[in-house]
Design brief:
Layout (H helix, E strand, L loop, with lengths): L11 E9 L8 E10 L4 E5 L6 H8 L7 E6 L2 E2 L5 H10 L1 E4 L11 H11 L6 H10 L15 H13 L5 E5 L7 H18 L2 E5 L3 H4 L4 E6 L2 E7 L3 H10 L2
Parallel strand pairs: 3-8, 3-9, 6-7, 7-8
Antiparallel strand pairs: 1-2, 1-4, 4-5, 9-10
Helix pairs in contact: 3-4, 3-5, 4-5, 5-6
The structure holds adenosine-5'-triphosphate.
GO molecular function: ATP binding; ATP hydrolysis activity; transmembrane transporter activity
Protein name: ABC transporter ATP-binding protein
Keywords: ATP-binding, Nucleotide-binding, Transport
Length: 247
């Protein structure tokens, strides 16, 4: 019997995404015809000068804002045309977020910070899974520590464990090392790298730091809302040079 092999869709795909803020017909496009596919288990860095549209691209990709035109798919499912209610569900269940500032709750322990937000959002989030994730991010010995008793890098690792609780299709990270010193930043990047390689997590990270971008599988360069280059295996020096020389 012959079998047709259907290729799995990428974890995330943007097709010809354009974003304009404001209704005026002449409103300038912040994103112009952005197309990119993010295969499952890959780690992509998004770089570009300030104002080039990185955060807007991340927001369109994560269902935080709708593109003006174009499509966005998460695991093969269109998300750009979802209702507000469906988008809320998508953000809760199918994508994870990590930000520069860890947004942990000071009064909760590390393990509570990982599972309580999901439970409060009505998910059957289990403490056992939170413990597993904290072990995975190297904090198995710090389960009952509160944020004030953790270093910056450790706090960000708690935030990463929290983002992974719902087993998201894509983990979005906006400047995850921006508030960390070099060594803590390196630990967080090593963790993201390991999550992609060993756990198959699909990661999309916005960063200004070429050294951080060099930890990814590839770097997408955005200039004036247009994806202008894709770098594979580039060094931090090369990435930094490409960003400043706009090539
Ligand atoms: N809600 C909004 N309304 C109007 N304009 C916006 C809005 N959000 C962003 N912009 C504009 O869109 C452009 C791109 O912004 P965006 O934040 O995506 O860039 P960025 O590359 O992430 O910048 P940075 O590196 O400084 O964070 C900027 O000119 C910004 O002023």
């Amino acid at each position: 019997m012959s079998q047709t092999l259907v290729e799995a869709p990428p974890a995330l795909r943007l097709r010809d995404v354009t974003k304009r803020y404001g209704r005026a017909a002449d409103a300038t496009a912040v994103l112009s015809g952005v197309s990119a596919a993010f295969p499952a288990g890959t780690f992509t860095a998004l770089m570009g000068p300030s104002g080039s549209g990185k955060t807007t691209m991340l927001m369109c990709a994560a269902g935080l804002t709708r593109p003006t035109t174009g499509t966005v798919e998460v695991a093969g499912q269109r998300i750009d045309n979802l209702s507000d209610k469906q988008l809320t569900r998508l953000r809760r269940d199918r994508v994870g977020f990590v930000f520069q500032h860890f947004n942990l709750i000071d009064s909760l322990t590390a393990v509570e910070n990982v599972y309580l937000p999901a439970r409060l959002a009505g998910r059957p989030a289990l403490r056992g899974r939170a413990v597993e994730l904290l072990n995975l991010v190297g904090l198995g010995e710090r389960l009952k520590h509160r944020p004030a008793q953790l270093s910056g890098g450790q706090r960000q690792r708690v935030a990463i464990a929290r983002a992974l609780l719902t087993e998201p299709v894509v983990l979005f990270a906006d400047e995850p090392t921006g508030a960390l010193d070099q060594e803590a930043g390196r630990e967080v990047l090593d963790l993201l790298r390991r999550l992609a390689t060993e756990q198959g997590t699909t990661i999309v990270m916005v960063t200004h730091d070429a050294a951080a971008a060099a930890a990814a599988d590839r770097v997408l360069l955005l200039f004036d809302g247009v994806l202008s280059a894709e770098l594979h295996g580039a060094s931090a020096e090369e990435i930094a040079h490409r960003v400043v020389s706009h090539r």
